[in-house]
Q: What sequence folds into this?
């Protein structure tokens, strides 16, 4: 008997009603437990990633999800992954907003400064609408990082590519 | 009657007719126009050019469906002047009708609430923004230059903070709560 394993499943392609219902029905039929997941539309393209665990093989999951791909406009990928405990950094959490006129290299220019400061991006979305390019990221800075210096470096990098950047501390209301 | 109450009554009774001229409808600029990222200068509220802009802001707000406020940056001018009118909005509690404020500053802000905001200058997105729901602010009326200090709450407080941000060169996008707090707009007013 196969022991329980953790799998990453990605589904990507043309959006239509029922994709999530079909995908999760296939996984439930195998007795898989869905853990963390995220789904969004990227300029109308369906994009879903999820982690699920169960005592099955990758082939079992691919077979269960095969009906999704029959139309030829959805791709499904399954691969085993190891459990990754979320590290506690002891640092600080920030929200970074960048916006301005669209051009290549905005994301690269800005996140380079985050990486240079030892920062770790934990969530990121970008949107393009007309000429407006928008990036919003959540990131952790290591304990002891000079957030003012990081913010200034990010602003300077943003200015170089003609956009503006705002770095704000995450406000969490513990109740 | 305390001074703040008197100011509140003064603001509530203010109308654009006091400006003595007909406002023109101006074009509203959209992001990524650089003026939207430019902090405004403090202005002389009695100067003719700003009285003219006050009238134009109100006129432009009036003809824009769903618009409850408009700042100078949104019509291409980096200056600390904006208009507001939330009186017809269902989320408004306290409100002071239509008014224009110059050089506004927050005196007190408390009781943060998160809500979804839109903006005429960012027509394709809305965003979840945390703002104070109790606000005391001070500013000057265009034309007379009277200094008024008012207390407000709920939606008028949110609208005022949104417009004051414009005057500082900030959009609601700069204050969204996180990576998943920006949403494509589903309906356009």
A:
């Amino acid at each position: 008997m196969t022991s329980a394993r953790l799998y990453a499943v990605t589904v990507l392609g043309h959006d239509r009603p029922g994709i999530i219902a079909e995908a999760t029905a296939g996984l439930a039929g195998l007795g898989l437990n869905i853990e963390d997941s995220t789904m969004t539309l990227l300029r109308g393209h369906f994009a879903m990633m999820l982690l699920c665990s169960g005592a099955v093989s990758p082939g079992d999951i691919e077979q269960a999800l095969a009906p999704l791909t029959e139309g030829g406009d959805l791709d499904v990928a399954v691969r085993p992954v190891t459990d990754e405990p979320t590290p506690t950094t002891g640092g600080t959490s920030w929200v970074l907003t960048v916006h301005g006129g669209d051009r290549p290299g905005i994301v690269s220019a800005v996140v380079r400064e985050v990486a240079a400061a030892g920062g770790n991006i934990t969530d990121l979305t970008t949107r393009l609408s007309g000429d407006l390019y928008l990036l919003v990221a959540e990131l952790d800075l290591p304990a002891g990082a000079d957030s003012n210096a990081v913010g200034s470096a990010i602003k300077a990098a943003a200015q170089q590519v003609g956009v503006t950047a705002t770095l704000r501390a995450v406000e969490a209301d513990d109740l | 009657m305390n001074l703040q109450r008197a100011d509140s009554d003064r603001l509530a009774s203010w109308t654009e007719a006091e400006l003595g001229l007909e406002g023109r409808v101006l074009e509203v600029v959209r992001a990524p126009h650089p003026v939207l990222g430019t902090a405004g200068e403090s202005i002389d509220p009695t100067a003719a050019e700003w009285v003219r802009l006050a009238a134009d802001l109100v006129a432009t707000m009036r003809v824009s469906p769903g618009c409850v406020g408009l700042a100078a940056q949104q019509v291409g001018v980096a200056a600390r002047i904006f208009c507001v009118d939330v009186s017809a909005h269902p989320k408004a509690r306290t409100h002071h009708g239509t008014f224009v404020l110059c050089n506004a500053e927050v005196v007190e802000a408390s009781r943060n609430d998160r809500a979804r905001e839109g903006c005429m200058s960012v027509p394709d997105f809305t965003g979840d923004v945390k703002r104070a729901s109790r606000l005391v602010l001070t500013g000057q009326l265009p034309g007379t230059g009277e200094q008024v200090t008012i207390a407000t709450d709920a939606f008028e407080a949110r609208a005022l903070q949104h417009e004051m941000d414009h005057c500082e060169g900030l959009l609601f996008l700069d204050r969204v709560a996180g990576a998943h707090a920006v949403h494509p707009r589903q309906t356009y007013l």
Observations:
- Helices of chain A lie at 19-29, 58-69, 106-116, 147-160.
- The interface with chain B takes residues 95, 97, 99-102, 123-125, 127, 129-134, 136-138, 163-164, 166, 168, 170-171, 173 of chain A (CB under 8 Å).
